[in-house]
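Intended use. Records like the one below are meant for learning the mapping from a protein sequence to its folded structure. Do not use them to infer anything beyond what is encoded.
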Amino acid sequence: MPRTIFENIVIKKFEEVTALAFCQYTPIRFFEILFIEKGSGTLIINNHRVNYDDNQIFILIPGDQYNFEIETPTTVSAVKFLNSFFGDMLSDENKAERKQWFKKIETILHGADRTAHLDFHSKTDESSILSLFRVLCNEYNDESLKSETILKSALHSILHIISRNVGFVSTDSADSRIQGIINYIHYHVHDSEKLSKKELSNQFHISENYISQYFKDKMGIGLKKYILHYKLKLAETRLKHTNSTVSEIAHELGFTDSSHLDKTFVVYKGMTAKNYQAHLKGSQ
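Structure written out for the chain above:
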């Protein structure tokens, strides 16, 4: 078994089963992807019932509880990222790689709709991710294989495809253009140049002078304020689930320095980011 980056990731596959119990890792699971390759029934997530069928993917986040009511024999695979996967990034030789993975996952955490299976924007993405999932599970569970290079590439690609397909606003209450803008902001939140009014207006064919007003009319919040609030959500997630320093988080999210993040975080949570991080560690 690869010991570097996969020692804190659990990949399990169950074939043609009529009953399932995924209880062992729930208390220490940070994030999970379920791939239902075959079968039908009901997936119960936090007491919410969702029908499932062949070739569907579901996302689980910290605190989610789920179980299956199986109607026809089901083949399902689960990829579970344990809390420890991101908790030791500072001392890990794969720090840069883990940070890239975390960026993908945090995008998914704040956008995934767990009341339904993942709805892909294109048949190409859907076909690609299903194939990648089979490669990942085959490689991980075959004792004669387990190439870390293949495992990393497959899983990174899966996270990348999921992160660009999660929906961030309901299409029932917003048109497709604002959906696209929100998706774009979340996907490019680490690149401030791509979030400029000029770049957004070019991407979505809206006047640079009008795009802020358009966004506020549709979302009820200003464009700059929305981006700032989303960055603060990401900062909170990193303070909770990684050992990244406040300075690192500030730099990665485009704040001037740790003091800038601290001052902004006070408005958001009533305390500085440093105090919030210390409070979390003290309560563990």
